[in-house]
Amino acid sequence: MKVLVIGSNSFSGSDFIDLLLEDESNEVVGISRSPEKSSLFLSYKRHNDPRFKFYQLNLNDDADRIAGVVEQFKPEYVVNFAAQSEVAPSWDYPEHWFQTNTVALASLIKTLRRCRHLKRYVHISSPEVYGSCKGQVLETAPLNPTTPYAASKAAADLLLFTYVKNFDFPLVIIRSTNVYGPHQQLWKIIPRSIIQLRSGRKIALHGGGKAMKSYIHIRDISRGELAAMINGTIGSIYHLSPDGGISVRNVVEMICRTMGCEFDKSTIAVDERLGQDAVYVIDSTKARSELKWLPEIEIQDGIKGVIQWIERDWSEVQKQSLEYVHRP
What pLDDT is stored for residue 326 in this prediction? Predict the structure, then answer.
């Protein structure tokens, strides 16, 4: 298969590439706006595989050059992970979120809809388009975004479906819950908590950690995305999620126990983030039924894997910032 991965430097995009390269018949091209990161963050770089080629191109500035890569490579599948994805700073720069997540996407899809070689375009969306996910949230749930980030993703999804309706565009949308695993951005709650405990610092819990999340290992998500890419029904949305949710507090308690630290002495409660959805649980029955997909990695085992990664690369981890730095 010939697969173009947009947003290849992202945590999810790089793991998806790593999974693709396990099959020797696959050719993969990656596009991201930044130079390739080190193997600390890009799992596929451990292999130095000649079947992968990288282009540093920005969706916002390099539409013509990206179109040239598409014309030259002629991918059968395009999987788009590229997005401004952090919630809190989207309140400060909402125009940046809409520019990347919606406006630049419109230019990309204008190019891709004319590609006769394209079998499927897989778009990575977000359950945050639903707002607070309570009860049985199915793919048919109404959109009710509560942050500029979520609104920009919802607008993108609506735009994509206009191309399905009018041009039979081969769209498949993925909405997955809270991913984690080795090589994740260090400011995310699981690696950040591990690093803070390892460094003897306290973990700040927004809202005391009451928010309910659905943490799922990145490799389980990548397997689901691959199944949807190959076998997903055109025009469908697929949820990828674990069985039920868990509070952020309980996840941090699990990390503390695994690392031999006392939770009460290792954490401090701080104010909740603006627009934080109280519940973040979605139903993935459709993917389990149609794609024969199931999550396989238990969160206890997954957290141990993240701890092992940080311990193994501790000298490199210490050189990295734990703060998100916004780039327009």
Answer: 67
User: Residue length, the chain?
Assistant: 328
Rounded to whole angstroms, the Cα distance separating 3 from 299 reads 30
pLDDT for 212 equals 82
At the fourth CATH level, the homologous superfamily of domain 181-213+245-276+298-317 is UDP-galactose 4-epimerase, domain 1 (3.90.25.10)
Which positions of the chain have pLDDT values less than 70? 133-135, 273-280, 325-326, 328
Whose structure tokens read 């092992």?
308
- Stretch(es) of the chain classified as CATH 3.40.50.720: 2-179+216-240
The pLDDT assigned to 276 comes to 53
Q: What pLDDT is stored for residue 48 in this prediction?
A: 82
Q: Provide the sign of the torsion angle of the four alpha carbons 255, 277, 206, 9, taken in this order.
A: positive
Per-residue 3-state assignment (H helix, E strand, C coil) for the chain = CEEEEECCCCHHHHHHHHHHCCCCCCEEEEEECCCCCCCCCCHHHHCCCCCEEEEECCCCCCHHHHHHHHHHHCCCEEEECCCCCCCHHHHCCHHHHHHHHHHHHHHHHHHHCCCCCCCEEEEECCHHHHCCECCCCCCCCCCCCCCHHHHHHHHHHHHHHHHHHHHCCCEEEEEECCEECCCCCCCCHHHHHHHHHHHCCCEEEEHHHCCEECCEEHHHHHHHHHHHHHHCCCCEEEEECCCCCEEHHHHHHHHHHHCCCCHHHHEEEECCCCCCCCEECCCCHHHHHHCCCCCCCCHHHHHHHHHHHHHHCHHHHCCCCCCCCCCC
Q: What pLDDT sits at residue 152?
A: 97
A 10 A CB-CB count for 84 gives: 22
CA dihedral 283, 87, 123, 82 (to 10 degrees): -150
Query: Architecture of domain 2-179+216-240 in CATH?
Result: 3-Layer(aba) Sandwich (3.40)
State residue 132's pLDDT score.
Answer: 74
